[in-house]
Specification:
This protein has 7 helices and 10 strands. With 257 residues, the chain is of the alpha/beta class. A 5-stranded mixed beta barrel has the order 5-9-8-6-10, surrounded by 4 helices. A hairpin with a 2-residue loop joins strand 3 (53-60) and strand 4 (63-68).
Length: 257
Amino acid sequence: MGKVYHLDLDKNSVQGARIALMPGDPERSPLIAGAIAKAYGTSSSAIASKREFTTCLAEVMGEKVLVTSTGIGGPSTSIAVDELAQLGVKTFIRVGTTGAIQERINDGDCVITTGAVRLDGASRHYAPIEYPAVASFEVVSALISGAKEAGVSFHTGITASSDTFYPGEERTDSFMEYKLRTLRGATQEWRALNVLNYEMEAATLLTMTSAFGLRGGCVTGVVNRGSTGSITAESLKAGEKSAIATIVAALRFLVQN
């Protein structure tokens, strides 16, 4: 096969990589790849950039690892996961930022997602809503080991994955002050059901990887209090740092499986 359309990659360019790390922000692709190269004494390089999809290639213990940005939300994430699967990738891990909704979770902590509430639309094009969005046990285990090794405070559990940042996460700083009746009180309900956090891509990625028979996972660094909190430069840096430190350490466990 030739190049996949959106990612501008082919099988030659990915060099047999079986693991893809998937930040939302294109600027985080070289940041994560560089952190991998530094930690493992290897090198990294940018290999493609088209639309919201920026891909870098790194190496861990002789294994090639891709870092491909997804952009924001389920639709663009679904494209990235689908096209990388076509190129032979077997393990997909979202690496990003999040807003916590449980009081015990602090800025700079990590959330390791075990499953996601499917508040998106894209995942429904791959499996009916009754199908669970769950992370691979092997990936969750590796992320836990990585967080412990990196000394990162972490929490494991359910993530609410919304199609929208403002109404879907019941934010108070939206231009539209009116909240649809179906969304009013959503944060209180998810909190009561022990949901840990809000983000926008995990449900799509986890549904797709399970449906494809592949491995999926998600680790996000906490940057604010979901639905109400503002994001500061300090909290953003702390959340990014913890998520990247966790995944970089986790890779040594992932490449062995």
